[in-house]
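=== RUN LOG ===
request id: a7f3
mode: sequence -> structure
chains: 1
length: 82
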Amino acid sequence: MNANNTIIYMKTIHVPILIETDEDGIFIVSCPQFKGCHTYGKTIDEALARIKEVIELCSEDTPLDTLNTFVGFREVEIVQGA
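=== RESULT ===
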């Protein structure tokens, strides 16, 4: 309940994130379910804390019932020419 004795319902969502490193060792994190939802950090913990904040901001502008359904990740093999 809040100060006005109103019950506030919170919804928890689980979203996929991608974690990569760039050539300088910076962790780049993105959430593909939200457009433009990405950030970075010098450590993985810093990057994960930041992406949670960014996801919260992105979710304010995007109705959660309009998100695409996450299916999964796959890797594809690409052979580069010699």
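=== NOTES ===
Helices lie at 44-61.
Residues 18-66 form one domain.
=== END ===
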